[in-house]
Amino acid sequence: MNKALKISRKEYVYNLEAKEINPISSFFASTTGKLIQAPPIALSAQYEIFIDQCEVKDTDLKLLFTTGLFELQNIELCLCLPKEWEIRRFVTSQFIEETFMVDLLKELTIKLERKKSAFKITEGLFLDRNKAPWNKLSWEQELEGLVCVNYNWNENPHQEEGLNDAEEMITIYTLIPVYKTEGEIKDKLNEILISKDQLTWDNIAFPLNRAIALQNLLNDGVTTMELPKIQKAVEAGAEVNRGYIEEHWQIGFYTTQTILTRAFDTENVLLIKYLVENGAEVPVNALAFLGGWGKRNIFEYLINKGADINSKSVEMSALERAKSFKNIEGFNDLIALGAVE
Fold it and tell me: What is the Cα 148 distance to its own chain's centre?
């Protein structure tokens, strides 16, 4: 980097305790792009080490970076991703798991935490997907590994003003993808290291994860009620039992519903049936979502798939919701099918 990041441990901890923007995040915000607000992700159980995100200005990319790793070694790490790349994966509305990038940074943190380990993160370090512990991660097929580079991206001429010699200088390394192509790995790494300062953000960004692209397509198809788009996503391998992802201006991506329960809101019977026939799990309280608009055919269909006619959602049964929304035909259908008042 052409301008070093300097920070004291005392300043970093104080900002965390005061719940103010920490100096590392402030540095990225001033040199790269505005911060992306999202729930914090901890990388260590022993130290105050977290993941933060910021936009890369004038692009459709973002940086994922560590804050607090410098306590273990005088470094921080970052990597460049498409904005759509999920950092946390909502498998259902209740269950969250970390994705490849978080798992990778956790493994690096674990290796640095080991007191007797000789492991150091330096320029040219290659993380080979075929070697432990990296081989247990969920790599994209086209990647051979990652190389650690001191990429010259900081263009802020005022970053060092007001800093004193007592503060620690930190090197920020960028993890750059190495692709499976013909040739020796050492030649590929040398080429990246020699040309590193001519590389653009697009050159060093990870490719959009195929699974994420398919999930986004499925998500969009449900949002816009476009069955052909949903069919395309499902046929290509999108998971119908993943959470439906929404974006909030403050907390980032989140989910409160499954793909199927979000589809209930569309009032599109063909769409709902397509998802169920292709593996979407029908919740026991499915009819409670439909009480405001459903009719006998969709009620019977979901009952045959395991739904309970009297089960509730948000403290209301299908019958209570039909009454509340003045769905008279649906109310009578539910009574005929055995709903209890």
Answer: 22
Retrieve residue 233's tokens. 């996503």
The full set of domain ranges for the chain reads 5-207, 211-336
Place of tokens 């994922």: 64
Apex 311 CA angle, 310 and 315, nearest 5:
110
CA 266, distance to chain mean position in Å, is 25
Distance CA 56, CA 328 (A): 53
d(CA 115, CA 112): 8
Q: Rg of the chain over CA atoms, in angstroms?
A: 25
Q: Is 99 exposed, middle or buried (0-12, 13-18, 19+ CB in 10 A)?
A: middle
Provide CB contacts within 8 A for 26, sequence distance 6+: none
> How far does CA 260 lie from the centroid of its chain?
20
CATH for the stretch 211-336: 1.25.40.20
Distances (CA, A) of 36 to 13, 86, 133, 134, 248: 21, 13, 30, 27, 11
pLDDT per residue as tens, the chain (341 positions): 345 577 777 788 788 788 788 889 998 998 899 999 887 789 998 899 999 999 999 999 999 999 999 989 989 999 999 987 777 654 444 444 557 888 999 999 999 998 777 899 999 999 999 999 999 988 887 899 999 999 876 544 334 443 344 446 788 999 999 999 889 999 999 999 999 888 889 999 988 767 777 888 999 999 999 999 999 999 998 889 888 877 655 545 566 788 999 999 999 999 999 999 999 999 999 999 999 999 999 999 999 999 999 999 889 999 999 999 999 999 999 999 999 98
For residue 297, which of 317, 324, 267, 340 has the smallest C-alpha distance? 267
* Residue 172 phi, psi dihedral angles, 5° rounding: -105, 115
Name residue, tokens 């459903």: 294
Q: Are the C-beta atoms of residues 246 and 255 closer than 8 Å to each other?
A: yes
Indicate the residue type of 270: L
Amino acid type, 187: D
